[in-house]
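Long-time lurker. I teach an intro course on protein structure, and each term I like to show students one example going from raw sequence to a predicted 3D structure in token notation. This year I'd like something fresh instead of my usual example. Would anyone be willing to generate the tokens for the chain below so I can use it in lecture? Attribution to the forum is fine with me.
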Amino acid sequence: MRIAIIGAGAMGGAVASSLLKYGNGNYVISVSNPSAAPLKPLEEAGAQTMHDNTACVKDADIVIVAVKPWIVESVLNEIKTALDYSCQTVVVIVAGVTGKQMEAWLVKDNGDKAKLLIAMPNTAMSVAQSMTFIVPVNASVDTIADVTALFDYLGETMVIDEAHLPGATALASCGIAYAMRYVRAASEGGVELGFKASAAQKMVLQTLRGAIELLSVEGAHPEAEIDKVTTPGGITIRGLNEMEHAGFTSAVIRGLKASVKS
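-- Reply from a regular --
Happy to contribute to a lecture. Here you go:
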């Protein structure tokens, strides 16, 4: 399958390099970008690179547009005349632009509409651990399956409706930063407890891996796992209660809600 990627910035470049690394050779990747510097490592990794967006989308099965929100309209208008809606699918990676807007921008003069989806991966796709959300705007079941299969190579995918995309982005895209902040805080706590920073971070990371694996078991629930390590009068419950006195749960929820405010 041929994949054209418009934009080689943080998202477009990561999708391209990750598909080249983790796609098991199932995709032929073309990438276009106005500047040459971001294209060089992608070309070295096996992508065909260029500066012409319309040339890039030619013969592609799936066209991924990963540009800044304020230039999405101009890019879609630029490439739509070169697209064949009977056999090509458009996937846009963008926040703050609605599917309805993009669908309107892609309508051709004869009224034809593009097969269109929104995708929202996170930066963990660089290690094939993204949580990617797929939002069908105008797409058949087969089209959704093809796009989902593509992003499955980069981690986990979930098909959702557009109304839930801001919340999903807060949980999984902004959530990467929130998880990193916990790791930093816990590691700094480990230093205060007498460990070297590198050792403390190693402990925290492995602890998180263990927690993830425990919760990955079918039927597992966080509170049930917490109960297993909170003995009456023990040190774990004292630590948890101190965190709650400082507003731990409330702070997490408030942070997530703040992430979806316009």
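Some talking points for your students: The longest helix spans residues 197-216. Strands lie at 2-6, 28-32, 48-50, 62-65, 89-92, 115-120, 130-138, 155-159.
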